[in-house]
Amino acid sequence: MRWKPIRLIPDDTKYPFMRLSRFGFFLSGILCALSIALFIFKGLNYGIDFKGGTEIQVRGTQTIQMDDLRKELDSIGLGKVELQQMGTGNDVLIKVAAQAGDAEGQNSQKKIMEALGPNFEKRAANTVGGSVSSEYTQNATGAVMLSILFVLVFLSFRFEWQFALGAVLSLLHDVTLSLGLFSLIGLEFNLSVVAAILTIIGYSLNDTVVVFDRIREYLRRYKAMGLADLIDFSINSVLPRTILTSLATLMALLALFFFGGEVIRGFTSAMIWGVFVGTYSSIFIAAPVLIMLGTKREVSATQAKASKG
Amino acid sequence: MFHYPRWKTLLILGTVFLGILFAAPNAFEPLGIHVLAQKLGLKPMTLGLDLQGGANILMEVDKKDLTEKVQQQLMGDIRATLREQKIGYTNLSKTSDGVSVTLNKPEDAPKVTPELNKLLQPLDSGILSAGVAVNLFSLTQNNGQYVFAIQAKGFEAKMQTSLKQAIRVLENRINGLGTTESAIQQQGANRISIQIPGLQDPDRVKNLLGSTAKLTFQLLCHDQPSTANALPPPDCAAYPRKEDVDAALAAKMKADPTVKELSDSEKKALPQMWVQTAGLSTVDGADLTDAQPGFDSQTNTPEVTFKFNQKGALRFGKLTAENVGKPFAIVLDGIVESDPVINTPILGGSGQISGHFTIEQTNDLAITLRSGALPAKLVIAEEATVGPSLGADSIRAGVYAAIAGLIFVMIFILLPYGFFGVIADFALIINLILLIGVMSLFGFTLTLPGIAGIVLTLGMAVDSNVLIYERIREEWRHGKTALSAIETGFTAALRTVTDANVTTIIAAVILFSMGTGPVRGFAITLGVGIITTLFTAFALTRLIMAYWVRRYKPKEINL
């Protein structure tokens, strides 16, 4: 069992990340501004979780003629019907907006199935009423806010407040860019995408904490080194790990993307994006923020105690 | 770190063994030996509705209906109170948010006010301020005109109690159905979640759960409507007959087969029957000891027989004894089921409803009668169904993705780490087994996003091994001996991994608390995955490394 391990990343790299971070800030600033503009002016393609309505996934006995189907469904009085072909040509996802009155909403499913006739099998259906969907929106927003707040508290406790702020800024950056991407390509934004965003927060933080942990260690060991050099040194030291872990996670996500089926593809797409953004932001957002905030070089008493655990 | 006391080794290996044991039943079914799981008393993971197929329904109390019920009840109470006091009144009617009544003689007010004040219905204001009573109504009086207005806070409390009551009633109904494994629970502050797994017809369950099942026995009014649209006299209510409703519904369904019931206005347009609202006898689960489906012995048509408890029997006996020879109406949820004439007083405390039922209807009616009436109509806020074929596809997709993910990650980790990669791969497999074992042991539900969580865990679990190995490698390259490099690697990485994973646990906990159904499934696997990862990295991998170091005394590290 002796084979020469293959190194993907050269050792002792000396990339000047902090010098590059000026471009990083610039790029991120533009991308964030674009994302916010997209979010405000184009908005997100909300799924029925958030806007209410009915969604039915059906399978036909033969290849579905989308145009015929659209014509047929537009005439049953449920307003504009949205169709989306899935997988092989036999599956289609039908979406209609919430109908006035809850009772009507429940009937949408039946009306559609009647219009389709016996050659279609109902594979899944979901009707969300207005009251639930607005609550989901609140919950989702609340969850993202709450997790960011908890992170702020936890990191201030484990590190210095500058670290916590750096991490939170990089999280906001990740969330903003994720929303921007979803707005840009018009992928459906539903509850599982929110779950993905929370996971991105978890992942990105994981990455940031590993970098911070090393910075904290070197701050204690190399007291004479300049802060920017020290951060560069730290990031370069953990770079092999950063890249290996990102790639391993990407492997798992690609497996999900290709084999996991349509139902979770939105989730997987968000996560794949999140791995890139999260890795980028821990290096180019979270770390430079430490320099901008002027992190103290002396290790405080509380921190020294905490690091023993 | 290279010396492990025996008990520690046994503890770690024991945990792994238990994990394998609890995870094993999940492999039994595909292997066709699931009888073995039962013999061992073990269970595989519970599959979520998105994987096994089924319906998930969220219901909430219909505010409008509850308001109406509350108003109606109050009007009855006012009527009874004023009659008892022998005080004349007019204009007893609903307002937009309450009830108003006017005394014939305003000078009666001082006598009436304290009596009417008793009708304000103090209610417990609920979770936030337990023990503090709020009134359902406020009462104002002006020159003999009384206005009861529903209070927002009181109504909130009423909604809460109604919801609790509705859950109890629904549970009884579901249990009565016997065949289903449906689960009913409160979700959030004001909803009820009902899960109906498997292939059953969700429509039947929905109808069974949705019907209010309020059964009343009411005397017919002396006058009956002579023209359509005639307004009922005071103290009378108008209801359509079951035959007419059935006929109209059948006609409507011919035109549009998706229709399930008539609207209120359509019901009002049918010929009406006037029944007395005073002196009625209401029967619901509270007054019944039993209700059973059966057949009429003479006509052999389906019917429901029921038995009153003592209180109900007395009341019903009195009602029938006083009204022999008169017709009375059996009203179920606002429809007259039948209107027989009382031939003899019914004192035995049992009776039957017959007429226009199918066998399934009598079955369901018996169940609903036994379990009591709902406090108000329930409306469906969300309804999701997944057909079993899609569920099976999702399981297959999930399993493929998990296997592919496992293989990708395993190969990927072998490349840079060689022999150490083999240890990491072994730990990864044990990690997966432990994760499944924990899920099975605690009966956590596996959903499709949950499978995504598992696959993601595979990717992220490797992180702890990568952190450890990279650290060992660094230390080794910086001139430490093999032993001390390994030792430092583990201790330094442990702190990083713990810090890093706490943040993911935060995300998982928040996901769990805010999420519903599938998203919760994801949060569970993510959270459990972190814990099993910490175990495999810092207990199992470390134990294996310690054994390897003691056995082979390596002088160099091939990383």
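Chain A touches chain B through 86 residues (CB under 8 Å).
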